[in-house]
Design brief:
The protein is mostly helical. The protein has a single domain, classed as Up-down Bundle (Growth Hormone, Chain: A). About 75% of the residues lie in helices and about 0% in strands. The radius of gyration is 20 Å and the shape is globular. The relative contact order is 0.16.
C-alpha cells in the first residue's frame, strides 16, 4: 500500500532551499562587480578571476563531495559547505586586498558552493526513479528562485546600506539557513526503510530500485559517452558562467542603470524556473539526449541574439531565451548521468562531470574579462560562446545509449 506522504518530498524541498540560497548568493557576484571595481580600481579580469577560482574549487571539491555522498550521505556535507559559504560572505565585508578576494570568495565561497548540485541532485536521483527528471526540475527551480530574488534584494541593500553590509547580511542568512535545512537530508530511501518513488513493491519488483545499480568509475571512464558528457558540460559551463558573471557589467556598459542591469540577471533566474520544470518533465518523456539537444538549440539562439542586442528590451529578450536554456541544462544533466550510468556511483560520476563544467566555468569568465580589458568590448567573446555552444550541440548528437551494464558485470550494488 502506497504511503500517503513520501519522505522523498522533504528531500526535494530541502534541495530547493539549498539551491535557492547557494545559487542566489553566487548570482550576486555580478551585482557586486562594479562596486568592487569602483572602490578598489581593479580590472575586470582581476575581479572575474576570483569567480573563476571559486568555480575551480567548487568543481574539485565537488568530486570529493560526490564520493563522500555515495558513502556517508548528504547531511554533514551540507553543514560543512554551508558554514564555509556563510563565512566567506561574512568576511568579504572586511575586504581590503586582492589576495583577500581570492581567499575569501575564490576558496571559502568556492568550497561552500561545491555541494549545491552534486549533493542535492545525486540524492534526489536515489529517492526517485520514475519522476527523477521532474523532481530534479523542482529542486532546480530553487536555483531560479534564488537567481530571481536575491540579486534584486542585494541591489536594494547595496543602495541603502552599502556593499559591505550587503555581504554581511548574505553571509549570515546563508549560514543559518543551510545548516538548518541540512538536518532534513537522508542519503537514500533505504536508510529509513523506504523504496524510491514511495513504491510499495517488494524487493526485486519492477520499479522498486531496492538494489542500487550503476557503473563504477573505472568502467564509465572507458566509455565514449562519459567523455562526451564531460566535454559537453565544459562547453555548457563556459558559456553559462561567462554570462552570469559579465551580463550585469555588459548591460551597464550599454547604458542601463544598476537596478535595470540587475533586472536582466533576475529575469534570467525567473525564466530559468520555467526551463527547469519544462525540461525536467521532458527529460522523463524523451530522455537526456533529446533534452540536451533542445537546450543547446535554445542557447545558440540566445547567444546569436545577444550579439545584436543594444537596447534594454533586447537584453531582456535575450534573458528570456537564454534563461530557458540555462534552467534546462542545470536540470537534465544529473538525470542523464543516472540514465546512462545508474545510481550506484552517481555522486562520484556526476561530481566529475560537474568538475569538467567547473573548469569551463572558471576559464570562460576570466577570458571574457581579459578580452574586455584588451578590447573594451565583449562582442568578440560572445562570438566565441556561440561557437562553443555549437560544438556542444554536435557532441550531444553523437551520444548513444550504453549496452546493458548488468550483462557485462560492471555494476555496483548497494550491498557491495
Amino acid at each position: 500500500m502506497r504511503a500517503k506522504y513520501f519522505y522523498g518530498y522533504n528531500i526535494v524541498g530541502a534541495g530547493f532551499v539549498i539551491q535557492a540560497v547557494s545559487i542566489g548568493a553566487m548570482f550576486t557576484y555580478g551585482v557586486f562587480f562594479k562596486e568592487l571595481q569602483a572602490d578598489f580600481g581593479w580590472s575586470r579580469a582581476t575581479i572575474a578571476g576570483a569567480s573563476s577560482l571559486a568555480f575551480l574549487i567548487m568543481g574539485a571539491v565537488g568530486v570529493l563531495a560526490g564520493l563522500l555522498n555515495d558513502r556517508i550521505g548528504p547531511k554533514v556535507l551540507i553543514v560543512v559547505s554551508g558554514i564555509s559559504l556563510g563565512l566567506g560572505f561574512l568576511l568579504m565585508s572586511r575586504l581590503q586586498a586582492q589576495w583577500q578576494l581570492y581567499l575569501l570568495y575564490g576558496v571559502l565561497v568556492g568550497i561552500g558552493l561545491s555541494t549545491h548540485d552534486v549533493i542535492t541532485l545525486s540524492t534526489v536521483a536515489r529517492w526517485f526513479v520514475k519522476r527523477r527528471g521532474m523532481m530534479s526540475g523542482i529542486v532546480k527551480v530553487g536555483t531560479g528562485t534564488g537567481q530571481l530574488l536575491v540579486p534584486l534584494f542585494v541591489a536594494a541593500i547595496i543602495a541603502v546600506f552599502g556593499w559591505r553590509n550587503a555581504f554581511l547580511i548574505i553571509g549570515a542568512l546563508a549560514l543559518v539557513i543551510l545548516v538548518a535545512v541540512a538536518q532534513v537530508l537522508r542519503r537514500d530511501p533505504k536508510s529509513i526503510g523506504l523504496l524510491p518513488d514511495g513504491s510499495s513493491d517488494e524487493p526485486g519488483g519492477a520499479g522498486s530500485g531496492s538494489a542500487e545499480r550503476g557503473m563504477l568509475l573505472r568502467a564509465a571512464a572507458r566509455t565514449r559517452q562519459f567523455w562526451i558528457i564531460c566535454v559537453a558540460e565544459f562547453a555548457i559551463f563556459f558559456c553559462l558562467l561567462t554570462i552570469l558573471v559579465h551580463i550585469v557589467p555588459h548591460a551597464s556598459d550599454l547604458g542601463l542603470s544598476p537596478a535595470t542591469a540587475a533586472g536582466v540577471l533576475s529575469t534570467i533566474g525567473g525564466v530559468s524556473m520555467l526551463g527547469r520544470i519544462v525540461m525536467g518533465a521532458a527529460n522523463d518523456r524523451i530522455g537526456g539526449k533529446r533534452s540536451l539537444i533542445t537546450c543547446f538549440s535554445v542557447l545558440l539562439c540566445g547567444l546569436i541574439w545577444l550579439q545584436m542586442a543594444r537596447e534594454a528590451w533586447m537584453l531582456f529578450l535575450f534573458a528570456v531565451i537564454y534563461g530557458f536554456a540555462h534552467g534546462g541544462f542545470f536540470t537534465v544533466m544529473s538525470p542523464t548521468v543516472a540514465e546512462l550510468f545508474g545510481t550506484g556511483s552517481h555522486g562520484l560520476l556526476f561530481g566529475i562531470v560537474l568538475f569538467s563544467g567547473a573548469i569551463g566555468g572558471a576559464v570562460g569568465p576570466l577570458l571574457a574579462g581579459r578580452t574586455f580589458d584588451l578590447t573594451g568590448s565583449y562582442q568578440m567573446f560572445f562570438l566565441v560562446l556561440s561557437g562553443l555552444a555549437g560544438i556542444g550541440f554536435v557532441l550531444i548528437t553523437l551520444l548513444r545509449p550504453l549496452e546493458d551494464t548488468g550483462s557485462q558485470g560492471r555494476v555496483l550494488k548497494s550491498s557491495d
